[in-house]
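Response to reviewer comment R2.3. The reviewers asked that we include at least one raw input/output pair. We reproduce the pair for Site-2 protease family protein here without editing.
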Amino acid sequence: MTVLLYTLGVLLFALALVVSIALHEVGHMTFAKKFGGKVTQYFVGFGPTVWSKQIGETEYGLKAIPLGGFVKIVGMLPPGAEEITEPAGVDEHGNPVHRIRKSNTGMFTQLVSDARAAEWETISAEDEPRLFYRMAWWKKVTVMAAGPAVNLLIAFAIFVPLFATYGNMADVRITPVVADVSACVVPASEDQRLCTDKDPVAPAKAAGIEVGDEIVSFNGVPATDWDTVQKAIRENSDGRAEIVVRRDGAERTLVTNTTVTARPSGDSNEPLKQVGFLGVTPTAAPQTGGVLYTLDQMGDMTVRTLEALVQLPQKVWGVAMAIIGVEDRDPLGPVSIVGGGRLAGETVSHEVIPGADKAAYLLMLIAGFNFFIGMFNFVPLLPLDGGHIAGALYEAVRRGFAKVFRRPDPGYFDVAKLLPVAYVVGLAMLVMGVVLIVGDLVVPVRLAG
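Raw output as returned:
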């Protein structure tokens, strides 16, 4: 049964990501067609074609490796001025339509030239007014931003009902309401084991504290929040403890003596400290909220994601070191879709986690991946969507300045000149992806608990 549930979790996560990728590409295709562009292919996946069907001028299909997708928008790369040959015809305005020839001077120049040649091999004179590079800059921005925007909308659509009902597991409020009472005092290193006859009774149990009691004060210190209560308990050592609790709407005063035991100070890397111990666990409740709360949380996620993207190479290096055994894998570090699938499988198959918690965690995982995919694609570097967006914005600024200062129109921005950057970035992404996948297989991040 556990294996079946694990497999179900992996498959649900994988299916959700494939659907997300498909919708990402739908975003690009929809606006490209809306603005008159020619879309010849829409595929989900890479590698050998599994299935395809021609509908109108667009071929729709699935490929064998569902790790991405693409739409082929005709005319992404303009012809280079240095490569223009004789006119191959005219457009509807009488302007010449040019073919391009390959240039063989230098490795990167050759790569750019080959990319242009491949782009223009199937372009005919009648395609000229529909070429992507000829679109207004704001249309190009819209087409390229539509894909990652869809991922962000998917995340938003999941977060809103989840935060409004179950709550946000990343924004937990800890209150001085008793969620659990320890039956005995056991060492911190053995806190998962059952009590024995040799273990002393926990002070909270001896005092008669019950689950659901709200701690009002501890030795006269008002319980404004759990941190205040915890600090007072730890500083009390083995002294007398007078605890006021609210139960069934009425306040009761309970008396006991805390005991001294070694407990974590908060940082797992710091040694245990001898502190006062009562034996109660506070209530940790995920915060709830609607649309405005979700937008606020997604704003915080944006900041954290940008910080994570800056640190991504360093984090991936840490995963590489964990693979060879030099250091431990950071449980809060990046994971690949393989790692995400493992976490989904472990969540669904976990015997202790309630069904509602499993569903909420799985939805959070799917929404989190969509949010990261959306933000990552906005990075202003080719081959990411953000690279094309940056090129279109640069074109708008350059043409705007030329117009203001009455200079000749500099024309369309040549994205092909950035292809060397795209090759380097693409290689870096490939290497990081492989490292994360290997790390998720060799030293995987596992579900806590």
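The longest helix spans residues 2-34. The mean pLDDT is 86. Further pairs are available on request from the corresponding author.
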